[in-house]
Every structure is written in C-alpha cells, then in structure tokens.
Amino acid sequence: MILRSPYPDVETPRTSLPDLLFGGLTPADSAKTALIDAATGHRRTYGELVSAVDSVATALVARGIRPGEVAALVAPNSADYPVVFHGVLRAGGVLTPANPLYSAGELAHQFRDSRARFVFVAPMGLAAVRAAVTEPDVRVEEIIVLGPADLHGGPVPETAYDDLLATPRTAELPVLSADDLAVLPYSSGTTGVPKGVMLTHGNLGANLLQMQPLAPPSDHSNLMAVIPFFHIAGLNGIMNLGLYERGTLVTLPRFQLAAFLGAIEQFRITYTVIVPPIAVALMNSPLVDSHDLGSLELVDCVAAPLDTSLAEQLQERLGATVIQGYGLTESSPCTHGIPVERPDIDRGTIGVLMPSVEARIVDPETGNDVAPGERGELWCRGPNIMRGYLNNPIATANAVDQDGFLHTGDIVTVDADGVFRVVDRLKELIKYKGYQVAPAELEAVLLVHPGIADVAVIGVSDAESGESPKAFVVRHDSHPDLDADGVKQFVAARVAHYKKIRHVEFVEQIPKSAAGKILRKELRSREAASLQPTKELT
C-alpha cells in the first residue's frame, strides 16, 4: 500500500536553485543581513551575497568552466560557504562538498570519482588537498584558497579567493534548468565506499518547499548553522532553507559547546538544527544554565534517532520546541518530520511524510507491503529523490527501483495517524555522532596492515556518540603481538577523525556466508548478548 503525506503536494520548481533563492530579491531583502560568521564577526547582506556569488561565477566562466563540470569545496562552515556553493552553481558547474578533515587519500577518491576540475579549500585543508591532487587520475587544475596562506606551494596553480571576489561581472552566465545537476555529496548509501549522489537543482528546490511544514518561515528568524554544510542536512536543510526563507544564518566552523551557547545568546538565535550527541551535551552540561537561551524557539534533531525521554527533557530544559526530521543524502534530504503545529506527535518518532513524498513499508524478505503496524523497510518516492549514484548504475539500481522508490535500509513502523518510527536498520552504515562511516571502507584500510589476516567492522552502541566503529580482527601469524592500540593507530593515520576505530576485539575467525559475505548480523547479535566488558577495549 502506498502511503501519502497529510499535506498537499508542492509544485516542483522549474528554475535553477540560485534563481529560486535569489531571483525575487527585493530592495528590503537586499539590505537584510544574510550571513554572520560567529568565529570572525564577518557579515554579508543578501545584496552583498548575490554580488559575491556573481563574482565567483564570472571568474569560473572566465576560466572556461563548462556546464556540468565539477568544483570541490573543502571547508568548514563560514559566511563564504554559500558564496562558493551558489557561485559554482550560477556558473553552470556542479559542486561536490568534502569534509575538511579528510585525509589526502579520502579527498583523492572524491576528486577522482567526481572529475573535479577546481578545488576551493580553507587553509586548514590546504596541505591535504595539495597531496590529493598529485595522486593518479586526479584532474584538478586549480586550487582556490579561502583565507590567508602561502600560495603557489603546490603542484597546480593556486589563487586567492579574494581575487575571485574582486572579479567584475563581465561574462554572460549560463541559463540553467531544474533538471541540471547541482551537487555531488558523497554518501555510502546503505553500504560500501562513498559514492557521488547526483542531486539536481529541482531535487534541492523541491525539498526546500517540502520542508515548509516542519518550521513555517518567520521574517525574524536567526538560524544557527553548526551542522556541517558538507553534510546534506546542513547544506540544504539549514543553509539553503535559511536563505530561501530570508533568515539570518549564523555560522560556526565546528561544534564547541561554549561557543555554540555563546552564539545563541549573542545573536538571539531562534532556530537551530542539532544531532543527538549535541542534545546529550545540552542536557548534561552546567554551561547551559549560565547562558541566556530565551530567544530559542525551535530545535530540530537530525541524522540519528533521538529518544523520546531525552527529547522531552531537552524541551523542558531549553524552553523550546524539539522536533525530529528524517531523510538521507539520496533524498535531498528530508522525507519525514514532526511539524511544529503537531505537539501531539511523540518526540521520539520521525513524524509524518513531507508534502509530495510517497512511502511503502516493505518486508525485506518477500518484497511485499507489511500489514498495518508491522515492521518493514521504508521506501520513499518524490521529486526530491536523487537521479542516481555517479558512475555506478549497479548501486543506483539497488537503491532506487523501477517505480522510483528509494530503498532506505531503515526498518520502521507507522501508526494509524501516519506517524513513523524508526525501529532498526537493515543497512550496515555506522552513524558516529551523525557522521556516516562505511564498514567496508575501514575494512579495506585494515586489510592493508601486514599483521591482519581478516577483519570485520560493525557499529556498537555508545552513549556519547550513538554508535562507534568496532573492529573484529584476526591476527596474522607473523604478528602475534599486534595489539588494539596498534590497530587503532594504523587506521587513525589514514582516515578522518570520526572514522577511527574506537574498539578492537581479536577473534579466531570472522563469520561469513557460503558466498564469503561477512555476517555482520551475527557479530551484532553476539555483541548485544555479551554481558562482559569488550575484550581489549580501550
């Protein structure tokens, strides 16, 4: 049975995303503050934002960027992030956002797979980018540095970002449509190594309209943007949504509780989006009591399930409405949410279907719809669903069926009122503090170690981070003294911080199917049943 949203369908925009956000800018809009960088104090009005976007677009067109070519952005949140993002799109390009904490190898994979021609990078990531562009089959031609740095020390030409901003509007900019590709965030999907998710201008624009029931727009909204913009929830669910609603975006480069609370107090933040580990910090820290958070009206928790009790306690402590939203990179991201107008909905659920989203709940064994109230895999269809995975038709076919339904890998139930609850997960993906960690990627890293004969990685429950990666390791006979610290350090030197192995258990054998597939379910069951401390756990 196909389930439908209680809200009327939205009309999918037929314009480009920059035109949707800025095409109707009025003089009053132009004078309003669009962006405040809480770390530096730098501000931009909407008029200054659009002017800067056009300068970046003009500079890229002058460099010969062609429609559909890719530029990467490797940076934390700042007032420059939306300028670069929309500048690339305005030039007809496609932006692939990358984690600024990625290693050179991780960046090289993304640059290579996306065929990135240009890279915008914050100074903190410059060394890794310089190393990445030297790797085989990486085609980056120019690096644009978003801040003070000694330029020209790398293997390809380097340009100061300020030089792009000084570019006068001379070139004609292309006319784009909703069907053009806009962004290539990298996601592991339900399993495997990160893949480029092809999202169009129309996908992103439609999702902005679909998210309206979650938080009706306010002319006076000050939004705190602490969730990374390189994550689709930050990129479209905060950055673009805030700009579309003419809010003032206050950016933080990373989450630090004191800075987060101070920015809420200083800038009178009314709305913020968090992940469950931030919710835990807000509940447990005495710092909360020393800040005036009276302006805060709405807190949206995303990326991983939030417990009902914690959500209710957080509402009471902050004096703000707490809601949950649900989605995936592949759905731009939002498919479900708890609307602010529905205080009756359990705070531990993911709420109802957003406008224009259809869903099925399917028995993963039979492929048939489950009976009302029973558990099944959530499938979603709508104008926000990705075009597919870049260069990977097999993974695309496994994720989106012929009827257009995205198979989420999440097990849910739905009640008689159309309220959904996530109860389990089919997919192997680990969610560490809201970040996606693919077990297969970590296993590939570990198997390079000469002392490891075999390995399997799963996520284990962690009160602070939600889940953390645990490696089950079979030692090679040549390295009988390999210990947990050696395993952790080997991985830590090769991956971003959130992908680190946090726990290690040495085993005699990895459980596998007759076809050689790792039986992670068996490992998870054994982990859950164990009442003893994890072996060699540090």
Amino-to-carboxy terminus distance: 48 Å
Uncertain runs: 531-538
Number of strands: 28
Structural class: alpha/beta
Which range does the strand content fall in?
A: 15-25%
Q: How many distinct helices?
A: 16
Q: Mind summarizing the main beta sheet?
A: 9 strands, mixed
- Give the spatial strand order of the biggest sheet: 3-2-13-12-14-15-16-17-18
Examine the coordinates and then state which fold CATH places here, giving the name of the CATH topology of the domain at 1-16 and 246-427: Rossmann fold
Helix content: 25-40%
Q: Which word captures the global form?
A: globular
What is the CATH first-level class name of the domain at 1-16 and 246-427?
A: Alpha Beta
Give a description of the structure.
With 538 residues, the protein is α/β, with parallel strands linked by helices. It is built from 16 helices and 28 strands. Among the domains are: 198 residues, ANL, N-terminal domain (Rossmann fold, 3-Layer(aba) Sandwich), CATH 3.40.50; 100 residues, ANL, C-terminal domain (GMP Synthetase, Chain A, domain 3). The strands form six sheets. Strands 3-2-13-12-14-15-16-17-18 form a nine-stranded mixed β-sheet, sandwiched between helices. A five-stranded antiparallel β-sheet has the order 1-19-20-22-23, with no helix packed on it. A five-stranded parallel β-sheet has the order 5-4-6-7-8, sandwiched between helices. α11 packs across α12. It is globular, with a radius of gyration of 23 Å. The C terminus is likely disordered. It comes from Nocardioides immobilis. It holds the Pfam family AMP-binding.
